[in-house]
């Protein structure tokens, strides 16, 4: 496999999803077309990395998980269910790789909370003005510090819905839970996040 697809080079922003359809790219990649594989990697590597970073809070670990997840993505491409979307399927792989890493290190999921400084340095938009950039970074730091106090279960469902804009059905596929559980878990997680943000606001008042 071409190292550019899964390597540790700086990650570019993900494409906007325009261009060739997922199903066409997957079919071509299955047939061994290198260009289709490179396009899939370019399109989905960055979202996979961001999710890993959001779950782990460590850039090096996130890069390692992303590399492993992309390798697994391509080696299992022939078993991909064409009725599913690529991103939630890849996110399932990322989540499993993260949990494998936790198991190897004998950590519980909640022991590895995201670090606000590591995350915001990756997620601030370079196109914004310096003033808007600063305020956006401050807001993200507040949110990530609050998220870091939640359980991993609460944190990941907020990340999938509110940061990656996955549908309830996609989240159910990633987490392996019923849609009703997705909705109730998300409601509870958002309630806890609001409470933590309000507590943080009072402390800084």
Describe the protein's architecture and organization.
By secondary structure, the chain is mostly helical. It is built from ten helices and no strands. α3 (34-56) packs across α5 and α6 runs antiparallel to α7. The longest helix is centred in the last third of the chain and has 26 residues, at 179-204. The protein is globular and about 55 Å long.
Q: Outline, from the CA principal axes?
A: globular
Rg over CA atoms? 18 Å
Under CATH, the homologous superfamily of the largest domain reads: RNA polymerase sigma factor, region 2, helix turn helix motif
Tally of helical segments: 10
Task: Give the biggest beta sheet.
Answer: none
CATH architecture of the largest domain: Orthogonal Bundle
Report how far the terminal alpha carbons are from each other. 54 Å
How many strands? 0
Short description:
The chain contains ten helices and no strands. It is mostly helical and 205 residues long. The protein folds into two domains: 93 residues, RNA polymerase sigma factor, region 2, helix turn helix motif (Rna Polymerase Sigma Factor, Chain: A); 86 residues, Winged helix-like DNA-binding domain superfamily/Winged helix DNA-binding domain (Arc Repressor Mutant, subunit A, Orthogonal Bundle), CATH 1.10.10.
């Amino acid at each position: 496999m071409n190292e550019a697809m899964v390597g540790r080079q700086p990650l570019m922003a993900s494409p906007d999803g325009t261009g060739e359809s997922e199903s066409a790219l997957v079919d071509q990649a299955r047939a061994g077309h290198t260009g289709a594989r490179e396009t899939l990697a370019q399109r989905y590597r960055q979202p996979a990395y961001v999710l890993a970073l959001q779950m782990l809070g460590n850039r090096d670990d996130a890069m390692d998980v992303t590399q492993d997840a992309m390798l697994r993505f391509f080696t299992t491409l022939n078993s991909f269910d064409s009725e599913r979307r690529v991103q939630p399927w890849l996110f399932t792989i990322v989540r499993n790789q993260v949990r494998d890493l936790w198991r190897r290190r004998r950590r519980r999921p909640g022991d590895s909370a995201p670090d606000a400084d590591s995350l915001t340095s990756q997620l601030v938009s370079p196109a914004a003005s310096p003033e808007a950039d600063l305020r956006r970074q401050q807001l993200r730091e507040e949110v990530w510090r609050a998220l870091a106090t939640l359980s991993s279960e609460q944190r990941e469902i907020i990340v999938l819905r509110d940061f990656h804009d996955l549908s309830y059905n996609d989240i159910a596929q990633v987490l392996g839970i019923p849609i009703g559980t997705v909705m109730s878990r998300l409601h509870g997680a958002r309630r806890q996040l609001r409470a933590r943000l309000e507590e943080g606001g009072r402390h800084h008042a």
